[in-house]
Amino acid sequence: xxxxxxxxxxxxxxxxxxELIKENFEVVILDNLYNSNIxxxxxxxxxxxxxxxxxxxxxxxxxxxxxxxxxxxIEAVIHYAGYKAVGESVEKPILYYENNVTGSxxxxxxxxxxxxxxxxxxxxxxxxxxxxxxxxxxxxPLSTTNPYGTTKLFNERILEDIYVSDNNWSIMILRYFNxxxxxxxxxxxxxxxxxxxxxVPYIAQVATGEREFLRVWGNDFNTVDGTGVRDYIHVVDxxxxxxxxxxxxxxxxxxxxxxxxxxxxxxxxxxxxxxxxACGKKIPYKIMDRRPGDIAECYADTTKAYELLGxxxxxxxxxxxxxxxxxxxxxxx
Length: 333
Ligand code: WQD
Hints:
Blueprint lengths: L1 E5 L4 H12 L3 E6 L7 H10 L4 E4 L5 H10 L2 E6 L6 H6 L1 H21 L4 E7 L22 H19 L4 E7 L1 E3 L18 H9 L6 E4 L11 E2 L1 E3 H15 L4 E7 L5 E2 H12 L5 E4 L8 E2 L4 H7 L7 H12 L5
Parallel strand pairs: 1-2, 1-4, 2-3, 4-5, 5-6, 6-11, 7-10, 8-13, 9-14
Antiparallel strand pairs: 9-12
Helix pairs in contact: 1-2, 1-8, 3-5, 5-6, 7-9, 7-11, 9-11
The structure holds UDP-4-deoxy-4-formamido-beta-L-arabinopyranose.
């Protein structure tokens, strides 16, 4: 029996595939390579000595999905495939709703046709909007401020309705905070296309000399030093959270929403400092105006993840930056 990982050559997907193989799961990967490349398969094989079965396919192609389910005995799905750039989603909402919602509906429909009703869904802390208090608990009010976040919220609602219609489903909705870092081998990590939107990939490009300085989007927030505070989590910790979630889902029915964060918040300037320590270089920066839609502070209450899944993040900000730099320093553009 195999686990199908959609988006399995992506940043978080590839790290989860490595940990699934280490746990002796058989893995099948579906990816359209829109935001990743096929070389990641070679890296997964180097790390694990196993080359997962790979299908270059799009979740918008129902026949391709049916082919995968008919050729493999899939027992569960971890669903990462989706577009994830907040800014791009504001410019191209139709593209995001088609890919992230219609594509996901195709997957859920084909899963149902093949009686595969165990799913781990990749959601995001962005569904909490601007939280009224901190740390954020799973039962906090949900609101979104951009199409990307709304596609995550729509998927959560769809999955809840699927469970109401058929109690044989087992669904884990995992809300990620800010994934950073890379596998300790330095072979897999985050390889953003174009100008990185996210903080740490941008800092890494300042460290490699590709960017001149870090633009700090605002220092007038009500936070420790005025810059935005986020709950950064090591991508390997995040991957391990998925192993716990799939193991739980394979033995329980129902829908569970779980925060995957560390419970600690770090400001932009604190992350910059940690990255300077990790790479041994200065990271020059300039304070700019706020980025539209940015909230001041966001970090997770991690109680449920520990009580339900027995999972807790292990790596701190220094190790996240060291492992991230160990990967990024080798990226030659
Ligand atoms: C972090 C902090 C910025 C870049 C986004 C998505 C979220 C999730 C993670 C997918 C903020 C500041 C950033 C820069 C900066 N993605 N910053 N200069 O916005 O918390 O979350 O990525 O699920 O859905 O919304 O992450 O890394 O973009 O920003 O000052 O060049 O760093 O203002 O305070 P964010 P981020």
